[in-house]
Amino acid sequence: MDNFKVNGFKAAAVRSGIRGKDRLDMGLIVCDRPAVAAGVFTTSLVKAAPVLLDTARLADGKARAILVNSGIANACSGAPGMAAAISSSKFVADGLEIGEDDVLIASTGVIGEQLDLACFKKAIPALIEALSTDGLVEVSQAIMTTDTVAKMAVRVVEVAGKPVKLVGMTKGAGMIKPNMATMLAFVMTDVAIEQGCLQQMLQQACDRSFNRITIDGDTSTNDSVIILANGLAGNQPLTENSSEAAPFMAALADLTKDLALQIVRDGEGATKLVTVRVKGARNDQEAKQAAETVAESNLVKTAFFGEDANWGRIIGALGRSGAAFDQQQVDIAFDEVLMVENGLGLGSEVEAAATEVLKQKEFSVNIDLKAGSGSCEYYTCDFSLDYVKINADYRT
User: Which residues are marked as active site?
Assistant: First the structure.
């Protein structure tokens, strides 16, 4: 548990009774001092009240606390939902004796239901009383919905001669599609950094991680990635032009990728983690189109579940992706097993070897379009019978 501590941060989680369930469902993360803050949020036109509130509050680039609940998303909840978000943040601000605008809000769960403020009135004093340096682990448990495991990661990196720590947590198992991926994620770090630099780094890290995963192709109303940096590491503050910024950027990108892959591994009903690698596209954008289309194809994903090396579904997805290529040049391999060369299958013996690859819990689909130098990696999972069962009775 010591591994998931960051100097200057405390956290706690409680059972507040949201949706009448006896489980950890509300968490609070607090920084001992004003922190530089940045966020990346859903691109859906339908945005939850917390997303709208946080976007406005992050305009000044600082925050002290994050209050998060699971069970109810506070999305499509109209004026009462926004009032609930604001009121709950005021409970935190009053209890901590900090500015209301320094409190960020996040929610996850069922869309269209109203939050009961009585849960917050009762729980927030208990949260504040329970704040501890060990609390981040419990918050990672409180944000779970259909997740089967809590998801955390830690990185330590040297920045300008100073050790800097990053601790991240995320939740997400379904309703996962880039722009962003459907999820909540919070990163706490003691690095000293200017806000513009932090925002730019967070966006770049998300583009390489949370925006490269898919479980079911559905984008959420609540996607939020928030990072707080309190500067207690004592390094010279990083700027967009700082030569010292590269190690921190690499650590942040690695941490967010770790968290993103944990989401895919825990995808609703998932039994496989699949990396789709495309190279040889005309440019990176077309490589992304090709990889995303293959990764999101229901036919491809069900074939993965059935351990069926049906490459016809893959090349079919490539053909509708919008990427330009000559079908008679395409190579497709499962891990190192080349199954298609120059658009033609290599026979039953190779297919048998590819089927063995698909029996693994993790494998890659490697595609060469031979049309240019563009490349992209995407991460997906299989579609199982359990995915349908989980989502058929999600609200019950």
Answer: 182
